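Handoff note, outgoing to incoming analyst
You'll be picking up this chain. Sequence as last confirmed:
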Amino acid sequence: MPDEKNKTLINRPPVVVIMGHVDHGKTKLLDYIRKTTVAEHEAGGITQHIGAYEIVYKNRKITFLDTPGHEAFSKLRGRGVKAADIAILVVAADDGVKPQTIEALNHIKEANLPFIVAISKMDKPDANPEKVKKELTENDALVESWGGKIPSVEISAKEGTNIEQLLDLIELMAEINDFKADTQKPGEGIVIETNMDPRRGIVASLLILDGSLKTGDYVLSGEATGKIKMLEDFLGKPIESATFSSPVLVIGFSTLPLVGDKFTTSEIPFSPALKTAAKIGGFIEKLFEAAPGDAIATVNIIIKADVQSSVEALKESLEKISFENGRVKVLKAEAGNINDSDLRLADMGSAIILSFNVKNEPNIIVTEKQKENLISGNIIYDILDQTKIVVEKKLKPKIEIEEIGRLSVLANFRQEKNKQIVGGKVISGEILKGVKLEVFRNDAAIGKGKVTSLQSDKKDIGKVEAGHETGIGIDFGDPKILAGDTIVFFKKI
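Most recent structure output, in case you need it:
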């Protein structure tokens, strides 16, 4: 008899993740497969957040995850792998294995994913696929043509070379691994993107890995809950239901779910005993948290971006930057346009606002002072570069002068080329060997110098306090210091 547990299991389409170094042709490959031109519209020519797309090839569906190649998105690439069944590692034939290639390969190995190497840009005159294979071998990835077990295909997304061969390999790999799921189960999967739409509210992109979901279902992801008010497919078309391996857009969450978190659905409401999203009060508490150490200089940051994955990438990249004279503290990091509460928090915490691919809410007024602390753009590494410059400027030590003592000159014992020896009485504070000084005559400054020696009763000493007389050797040229002059001693802080 067939196993009752597996009775409702059926074959499901594979979920394929595209990985590799920045500008190695991942998005152009997807463009060719999907017959779209997303790459031309991506700011700076790079993909800046995860997208998921469905295609039909030889009457069978394949779902693709497109993960960014820039190093800022390491965390997202790791999550993309967890959501996938098969990986395609894209390596440019004219550029070879690069840092993010190796990082992507490590993610694939850690997840124990079957994968295919796509050697891209074979249309380039300096394409060298054998060099790519050699470099992959050096990183413990031996392709079939070199005697290993990893399938590889040499492609050109520009000319469409061997794209069908790549898709055939995906189908073969899916058949061998026999991916199955259950349509009768509640829908579950992973959150691949979130953002705050000014018209529709919280919008979440979900990838269904098992089961089915429909409008009216309740959805739970981490601490975020809601009821599905609207479903759309990856093309933005309204749908009533969806099942495994499909990417869908869900409207109905009451708070933003986190990218990479798992989700599940139910026909009945989930328990309300869940934590609510942090309000402005929580951010204020964070503002006054004790910093590690005694007095570490800190620059506060507020991050606002179009989607949650970009928020996380900015936050993670920012926290990796080391600053010589202090640190940064992220007070708030969320998706959505800049609003009045962001500006109020920035004023309270003297914070910089990083604005990535977002605008100001139409009802707010940004002052000139606030504009000085607003860094905006649509290329993540440009924003990070700008932020580093601004933070380093804010952390640059401010030098202040502190007076530590005064002396009334009683006599000048000797004057040489750049040195004078005078005697006098300390009238306030103290004098230390090595400190800076300034000489005043009739309340007007006549020159600056430095204490080179202190003597009392013909003995060298390190300090003289108020009420005592002393002899002082100082680095000081002209004019000659006279009886009645006042010398002010200070240190820089």
